[in-house]
Amino acid sequence: MAEDTGLIVPIGRWLLEEVSSRAAAWNVGGHRVGAFVKVSAGQLHRDGIVTDVRRALQQSGLDPSLLTLEVAETAVMLDVDAATQRLREIKALGVRVAIDDFGSGYAYRSHLQQMPLDFLKVDRSTLAESDAEDYRHWLLEAILVFGRDLALPVIAKGVETAEQLSEMRTSGCAMAQGDYLGEPGPAASVESLLDNLLTFEPGPPTVAPQPETHA
Q1: Residues 22 and 35 sit within 8 Å (Cβ to Cβ)
Q2: Is 208 a domain residue?
Q3: DSSP readout, 124-160?
Q4: Domain that holds residue 23
Q5: Number of domains composing the chain
Q6: Which end of the chain is more exposed for a tag (fewer CB within 10 A), N or C?
């Protein structure tokens, strides 16, 4: 409904500013963490998106390199040339860019090579819709190889069990997120998580923190 009525634009602008401010406050508090913010198709294909991102960075004081915008592959494929140009303008601000729900929009290798990307995100639950376990495993392996070929880290979403996390490790996926690793929650719970991480000895796979960023 928000997409259809155009309300996604002010909602998305508010979300961008709110997340940037939260992340900046956490960094001031001694936690150098980044934030991922979803950008809808309506936002991406609108002239004001670059201005919105710049304003959020300026108002919050957040280091641009700590902000990553997630853009769905299907949104990019609506107009590849226009999306590529818009992403380049956003990237020029110093932020990072991730293609979300990779594998759902049929993007060609040549499309991705010309885009200024930093991550590919694949939804493990989408792979789970495939009937054969062998096929799911092959598909994940293919995406990981594709990411390595493009020098793009792959983040696996939808990790909900220890077995799934083990599968990601075995497949060589170094980054993951999902309810098993951390459920969405209020800012206070994220701050507690960050405090606990200070005493945690990290090891593979890397956990992509999942604070609540819903409008």
Answers
A1: yes
A2: no
A3: HHHHTTSS-HHHHHHHHHHHHHHHHHTT--EEEE---
A4: 2-192
A5: 1
A6: N
